[in-house]
Amino acid sequence: MKRRPLGIIIVALFAIIAGIGEIMVGVTGNFLGILSNGMEPAFSTAVIGAFYSLGGWSLLITRKKWGAAVSIVFIGAEILGRVYLVTTGIAPSSGADLVKIVIGGAIAFAVMLYIYWRSFVSS
């Protein structure tokens, strides 16, 4: 049986952990003091974090390409969710917290690209 690439395992675990962190931000408003200014706890933030975690789980439950495709869709939904949070005013739309949100989105996009590259291009 062919082994799952270590990079995919690492990315999947990162997505799961990052998603749990976002869920906690949604529940608490400022998990581990990540944000300079805490925000109101919001169900939508927790759902967006769940998308990130589901993206990681999709990579671990199957080695099939459809699992990678589902993962990319979930993580893409997480990125769109970040845009939603900022545009609706749930998340900060200026300052250092916005920079953190943008960097987090860029990391999520890099994760998507890595999954795509490992699952569809280099296979």
- Low-confidence stretches are none
Q: What structural category characterises the helix and strand content?
A: mainly alpha
- Radius of gyration equals 15 Å
| Whole-number tally of structural domains | 1
β-strand number: 0
Q: Number of helical segments?
A: 4
What's the mean pLDDT score?
91
Distance between the termini: 15 Å
Strand residue percentage: under 5%
The gross shape turns out to be elongated
Amount of helix: over 70%
Characterization of this structure:
There is one protein chain. The chain is an all-alpha fold and 123 residues long. It has one domain (11-28, 40-121). It is built from four helices and no strands. It has helices at 6-28, 43-61, 65-87, 95-121. α1 (6-28) packs antiparallel against α2 (43-61), α2 (43-61) packs antiparallel against α3 and α3 (65-87) runs antiparallel to α4. The protein is elongated and about 45 Å long. The model has no long low-confidence stretch (mean pLDDT 91).
Notable characteristics:
123 residues; 75% helix
Give a summary of the structure in a few sentences.
By secondary structure, the protein is mostly helical. Helix content is 75%, strand content 0%. The chain is built from 4 helices and no strands.
List the SSEs and their pairings.
Layout: H1 6-28, H2 43-61, H3 65-87, H4 95-121
